[in-house]
Design a protein that fits this description.
heterodimer, A: 288 residues, mainly alpha, B: 277 residues, alpha/beta, six-stranded mixed beta sheet, 32% helix, globular, ABC_transporter_ATP-bind (chain B), P-loop_NTPase (chain B), ATP-binding (chain B), ABC_transporter-like_ATP-bd (chain B)
Chain lengths: 288, 277
């Protein structure tokens, strides 16, 4: 491709220049990877189906039963609601907005505080013991305290998720900002680039690979945290329905909510990965 | 003989582009303090090309950071066109040694060149036009939509030079800019810089550890001592322009000058010129 052509004109030079990795080859590699991934999934589900239909325990319904129940629970609503049932609109959306709001707040807070810490070595050294201690508390363990202080409402849940998510983003942002090469920062100052533009044009883009890595872990955490928070003092939400189904021995429903969580987690992660792939195309290619 | 040399050797402080007076810089305090620069003074005239050479670790980078306003010296003053430098001055651009760090990998090379121009009055189209013109001046006009990591090291440094040109500096500081490119690329870039100096009417201060390069490029070579760095000698280079990588370096004048510079560097600034001390 064109990149190879450029290299040959000034080839003697050992720069960090990228060898040409064509988009076509990348697509081929991706589809191959997908085939491998889904191939394994299909085999696994088939085995699961065989094992559960052979077994007599009531705790393990077959995957087909779960999928059928999945459709019935969520997609048999009236046409004016796009066939979404009350369970889908009530519980799923309730969990989703708590999760996404908490996630957004946690990410914003993590990026802001992480950037401040990343910019100041002194601040990092002073706060390091506190940060290490606080982030070592499993977020789920702080749920009782959140309920005690903030009550059992949505505000508590959103704050709880934001708290848990923020640590992953904060620590990654601080490390990403702190590891920006001094020359890159000196360039911004030497050319009298405004402070705002130094932040949005140099510091944040340079730290973006690490920030997004933190946001990816944070997204997984957000899903865990929303479900956990709904196990306690909740009146709706995926976690609430999950624990209700378990208490009533509605095993099939319980499995169905679990499947929903798997699908949600997968979808959200895919969205983030696609976003990341776009934002960080330069990073991936520059390292290839 | 020295008719074609653009600058005369003597000049008053009034018409100086850059004036450095009694600069001393100390890193740290107490027992661990490191005196990087000791009472260094020199002057650079308008359109002059001055090289600074010295043994490695001689505080050359510290000096450039002070001149560019990124670092405040412990003592002494720097003036740009008579104005004391306090913070990063206007009209000064920098080419860093580490091109792979000084270029932003998420921007195309055209956007890299445009990046420092937002503070200027120029609108977006005008900024793009300036960027294109600068890329054209360094021979990269047809690559404007490429990314730095798609280019070789020499080309990346050309982009960094184009970025400095687009900024229209009166003073261009270059910090060992060609230290990490191969010899052939280096020669090409040296000649490029010489031609750009004329075309863009710039004063250039060029830090290098390469003796041949310092003599070949400059109107005057400043030799620094081992740390704490002070000025060992100023050596005018009255070799006429245009200079040629092969024939200029064959002249007795060039050979003589590079020998003088080399001896001064080897002696590390000791007046007796003794060997390794």
């Amino acid at each position: 491709m064109t990149t190879t052509e450029i290299r040959t004109t000034d080839a003697a030079n050992p720069g960090p220049a990228a060898p040409g990795k064509g988009g076509l080859r990348g697509t081929a590699r991706l589809s191959k990877r997908l085939a491998v991934d889904f191939g394994a999934l299909v085999v696994l589900v088939a085995l699961w189906q065989l094992a559960t239909s052979a077994a007599t325990t009531p705790f393990f319904p077959t995957p087909l039963e779960i999928v059928e129940n999945f459709g019935k629970m969520f997609f048999t609503g009236p046409p004016e609601h796009l066939f979404l049932t009350d369970a889908a609109t009530g519980d799923v959306f309730a969990s989703l907005w708590r999760m996404l709001l908490g996630y957004a707040i946690g990410c914003a807070w993590g990026i802001i505080v992480g950037t401040l810490l990343g910019r100041s070595r002194a601040a990092r050294e002073y706060t390091d013991p506190v940060v290490e201690l606080l982030r070592s508390i499993p977020a789920t363990a702080s749920l009782p305290l959140f309920i005690l202080v903030l009550g059992g409402g949505d505000f508590m849940r959103v704050a709880f998720i934001a708290w848990g998510v923020s640590w992953f983003v904060l620590i990654n942002t601080a490390s990403g900002v702190a590891s920006i090469h001094a020359t890159m920062l000196a360039m911004g100052r030497a050319f009298r680039v405004s402070r705002v533009r130094q932040l949005f044009g140099i510091i944040l883009p340079a730290a973006m690979p690490k920030i997004l890595a933190g946001m990816r872990i944070g997204l997984t955490a957000a899903l865990i945290l929303v479900v956990t928070s709904e196990f306690m003092v909740a009146t709706n939400g995926i976690g609430f329905q999950l624990i209700q189904a378990q208490r009533r021995f509605q095993v099939l429903d319980m499995w169905t909510w679990m499947l929903l969580l798997a699908v949600l987690g997968y979808l959200l992660n895919t969205i983030l990965e696609v976003t990341e792939g776009r934002l960080l195309a330069w990073h991936r290619k520059a390292r290839d | 003989m020295s008719v074609t040399v653009p600058m005369t050797a003597t000049r008053s402080a009034v018409d100086a582009m850059l004036q450095v007076e009694g600069i001393t810089h100390v890193y740290g305090q107490g027992a661990t303090a490191h005196r990087a620069i000791e009472n260094l003074s020199f002057t650079v005239g308008p359109r002059e090309f001055v090289s600074i050479v010295g043994p490695s670790g001689a505080g050359k980078t510290t000096l450039l950071r002070i001149l560019s306003g990124l670092l405040t010296p412990t003592e002494g003053t720097v003036s740009l066109v008579g104005e004391p430098v306090d913070g990063v001055p206007e009209g000064m651009a920098m080419v860093f040694q580490d091109y792979s760090r000084s270029l932003l990998p998420w921007l195309s090379i055209e956007k890299n060149v445009m990046f420092p121009l937002t503070r200027t009055e120029a609108g977006r189209d005008e900024r793009r036009r300036i960027a294109r013109e600068s890329l054209e001046a360094v021979g990269l006009a047809d690559r404007h939509d490429r990314y730095p990591w798609q280019l070789s090291g020499g080309m990346q440094q050309r982009v960094a030079i184009a970025r400095a040109l687009a900024y229209r500096p009166r003073l261009l500081l270059m910090d060992e800019p060609f230290a990490s490119v191969d010899a052939q690329t280096r020669s090409d870039l040296e000649d490029l810089v010489l031609s750009l100096r004329d075309r863009y009417d710039m004063t250039i201060l060029f830090v290098t550890h390469d003796i041949d390069e310092s003599v070949y490029l400059a109107d005057r070579v400043l030799v620094l001592s081992r740390p704490p760095a002070h000025l060992v000698e100023e050596i005018p280079v009255p070799i006429p322009h245009p200079r040629d990588q092969i024939t200029t370096k064959e002249t007795d004048e060039f050979v003589d000058l590079r020998g003088r510079v080399a001896r001064l560097i080897r002696s590390g600034g000791q007046p007796d010129g003794g060997g390794s001390r």
